[in-house]
Amino acid sequence: MSELPTGTVTLLLADIEGSTRLWDTQPDTMRAAITCLDEVISAVALNHHGVRPLEQGEGDSFVIAFQRAADAVACAVDLQRAPLSPIALRIGLHTGDIQLRDENNYVGPTINRAARLRDLAHGGQTVLSGVTEALVAEQLPPEVTLIDLGTHALRDLPRPERVAQLCHPDLHNEFPPLRTAVGSSNLPIQLTNFIGRQTEIEHVRRTLDDHRLVTLTGAGGAGKTRLAVHVAAMAAGDFGGVCYIDLAPINHPEAVAATAARTLNLPDQPGRSTTDTLRRFLRDRHLLLVLDNCEHLLEASAQLATAILADAQRLSILATSREPLGVAGEATWQVPSLPLADEAVALFADRARLARAGFSLTEDNTSAVIEICRRLDGMPLAIELAAARVRTLTLTEIVDSLHDRFRVLTGGSRTSVRRQQTLRASVDWSHALLTDNERILFRRLAVFLGSFDLTAVRAIAGDDTIERYQVLDQLTLLADKSLVVIDDTGGHTRYRLLETMRQYALERLGESGEADTIRSRHRDYYTAMVAQLSAPVQIGHEQRVAQAEAEMDNLRGAFEWSLENSDTEQALALTSSLHVLWWTRGRIQQGRTWFNAALSQYQQSGVSPAVYARALAEHAFLDTWVTGSATMDSARQALTIARELADPALLARVLTACGFTSGYTGDADLAATFFLEAGELARAVGDNWSLIQILAWQSNVAETAGFPLVARQYAEEGCTLGATIDDRHGLRICRLSCGWINIQRAEFIEAAAQFHAVLAEIEEAHDEMSAVGAALGLSIVYANLGQTDEARATSLQAVDLARGLDHYFLGLANGTLAIAELAAGDIAAARAASADNWQQLSGTHPDLAAVHLAHHAVHSAIADHDLPLARSWAETALGSSTGWHLALASLALSRIAQAEGRSDEAERHAHEAVAAVADSGALVPLADILEQLAALILRHDAWRAARILGAAEAFRQRTGMIRFPMYDAAYDESVATLGAAMSPEDFTAAWDEGAGLTTDEAIAYVQRGRGERRRSTSGWDSITRAELDVVKLAGDGLGNKEIAARLFVSPRTVQAHLSHIYSKLGLTSRVQLAHEASRRAL
Question: Do 500 and 382 meet the contact criterion of CB atoms below 8 Å apart?
Answer without folding.
Answer: yes
